[in-house]
């Protein structure tokens, strides 16, 4: 193969891989900003669960999915710590001592109160599932 044919082959391959530079910039967002629309906010742009979560937080519910750590109240057999769940079981973590570096995990089932290794009692209560549009 001669040097000229190699250069033609390389230049042809480069020509096919180069993208049209005028197509790299989309001006639809710029035009929208000029008319006063601007970039949409998170509330305007989100959908589904994310939108529902943002609406819940806006209405004052800081924990829409019940994921925050709950402080144990009572924890006795007569007054167990209530754990809400939309299912008939849930995994619960108990930090038995204030200085503990580990979490004791246990399955909690609907029905009677269940006791952790440290002596605290937990009881699962059914909660309504949130309606997410």
List keywords for this structure.
133 residues, alpha+beta, 3-stranded mixed beta sheet, two-stranded antiparallel ribbon, 5 strands
Approximate helicity band? 25-40%
Low-confidence sequence ranges: none
Largest sheet: 3 strands, mixed
Cα end-to-end separation: 66 Å
Q: Based on helices, strands and strand pairing, what is the structural class?
A: alpha+beta
SSE topology sketch:
Layout: H1 3-17, H2 28-34, H3 42-45, H4 48-58, E1 81-85, E2 89-94, E3 104-109, E4 114-115, E5 121-126
Parallel strand pairs: 1-5
Antiparallel strand pairs: 2-3, 4-5
Structural summary, described in words:
- By secondary structure, this protein is α+β, with helices and mostly antiparallel strands.
- The chain contains 4 helices and 5 strands; from the N terminus they run ααααβββββ.
- A 3-stranded mixed sheet has the order 1-5-4, with no helix packed on it. A two-stranded antiparallel sheet has the order 2-3.
- The longest helix is centred in the N-terminal third of the chain and has 15 residues.
- It is elongated.
- The relative contact order is 0.12.
- The mean pLDDT is 79.
């Amino acid at each position: 193969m001669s040097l000229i044919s190699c250069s033609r082959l390389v230049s042809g391959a480069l020509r096919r891989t180069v993208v049209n530079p005028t197509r790299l910039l989309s001006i639809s967002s710029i035009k929208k900003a000029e008319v006063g629309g601007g970039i949409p906010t998170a509330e305007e742009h989100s959908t589904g669960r994310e939108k529902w979560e943002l609406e819940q937080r806006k209405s004052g519910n800081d924990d829409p999915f019940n994921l925050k750590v709950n402080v144990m109240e009572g924890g006795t057999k007569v007054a167990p710590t209530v754990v809400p769940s939309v299912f008939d079981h849930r995994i619960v973590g108990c930090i038995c001592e204030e200085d503990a570096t580990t979490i004791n995990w246990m399955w909690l089932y609907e029905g009677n109160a269940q006791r952790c290794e440290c002596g605290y009692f937990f009881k699962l209560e059914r909660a309504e599932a949130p309606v997410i549009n």
